[in-house]
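Hey, quick one: can you model this chain's 3D structure?
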Amino acid sequence: LHTNGYSLARRVIADQDQLAPRDDLEGRSLADALLAPHRAYLAEVGRLRSGAGDQAGVDVKGLAHITGGGLVDNPPRILPADVAMRIETTAWPRPSLFALLQRLGGIGEAEMRHVFNVGLGMLVVVPAAEATRALALLDAPGMAKAWPVGEVVERGTGLAVVFP
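Sure thing. Here's the predicted structure for all 164 residues.
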């Protein structure tokens, strides 16, 4: 969950007579899944900016920590008014905790994206020409797993974040 969605998660599980089976949560108990430590991304951002070994750093254009407001409110805060982010919501594996909360709480997909990070703790915007190098820099022991999840596009619909 990182730093967001705990009020809704608490409300979802408060009325449950039985906690979810452990296999719904990659073998963890619900308590362990909810209490998992929040990841800080300082090492990843530092590696992206400075590079490593013979790999040059990348030009980090923006960082969006996906906290309260989820994928709806946070990305637009780092963008100029004339662009939006197009996020491909199937580009990363969604942790099973979110499917469980969605199912138990009867939460719609739009609300899931607005309240939770649904598995993306930080969005990093880099030039398209540097995306492959950015992913290679993060493909190292101790680094958070990274995926290419979208692109910055011209705003044509008035939406701040566009989901396919």
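One thing worth noting: The longest strand covers residues 83-87.
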